[in-house]
C-alpha cells in the first residue's frame, strides 16, 4: 500500500513539475517573441471583425489538440475599433484572466498573448459594408458582465464561452445560426472553430497560419 501511495504521489509530482515547467517555457517564449501585426494589417481591421489565435499555456494546447482542426487556434474575439484605438471583446475564464466572463482587452495585449503566426482575421458576410452592429452587440454583453460558461452549454445564454459569444452576437444581430451546419453526430461540434472557415459566412482578411505551411 505504501509503495502504491509513493508511486501515485511521484506520478502526480511529475505531472505538476511538467506543467509548471511547460508554463515557464511558454512565458519565456512569449517574452521574447515580439509577435505583432504589421501596420498594413492594422489598417485592414474593421469594427466588428472576428480575430482568432492560438494562446500560450497548457489550456490552449489542450483545446487545439482536442479539437484537432484545420487551423491551430484556441480562442476568438470580436474587434471593437473606435477613434484611434482597437480593442477586442471576448469571453475568458478567470483561470486565464484577471476576472471571469465577457471583457475587453487591448488588441496589443491580445496579440502579445498569441503564439507567433497564429492570428487569423475574419469578416462576417452580412451583405453590408458596415459590420459595426456586431461590435455594438458585443458591447451590450460586455456591459451586462456576462460570466464565463464553464459548463460549455450552448443552450444556456446566461453565460458564454469564447465561440458561444460570437455565435450569439451574430444570431442576435443577423438572425443567422453560424453553427447550424456543424456535424450533429460530433459532440464537440459546438466548441469548434470550423464554422469560421465557411466562406459563405466569413471572409478571411489575413491568415498568419499560412506562413507555417510555406
Describe what this molecule looks like in 3D.
The structure is a single chain. By secondary structure, the chain is of the alpha+beta class. It has helices at about 1-35, 40-45, 60-65, 105-110, 130-145, 160-175, and strands at about 50-55, 75-80, 85-90, 100-105, 120-125, 200-205. Strands 4-3-2-1-5-6 form a six-stranded antiparallel sheet. α5 (about 130-145) crosses α6 (about 160-175). It is globular, with a radius of gyration of 19 Å.
Brief descriptors of the model:
globular; alpha+beta; 37% helix; 6 helices; 214 residues; 6-stranded antiparallel sheet
In short:
With about 210 residues, this protein is of the alpha+beta class.
Task: Summarize the topology.
Blueprint: H1 2-33, H2 39-44, E1 50-53, H3 58-67, E2 75-82, E3 85-92, E4 101-106, H4 107-112, E5 120-124, H5 132-144, H6 162-174, E6 202-207
Antiparallel strand pairs: 1-2, 1-5, 2-3, 3-4, 5-6
Helix pairs in contact: 5-6
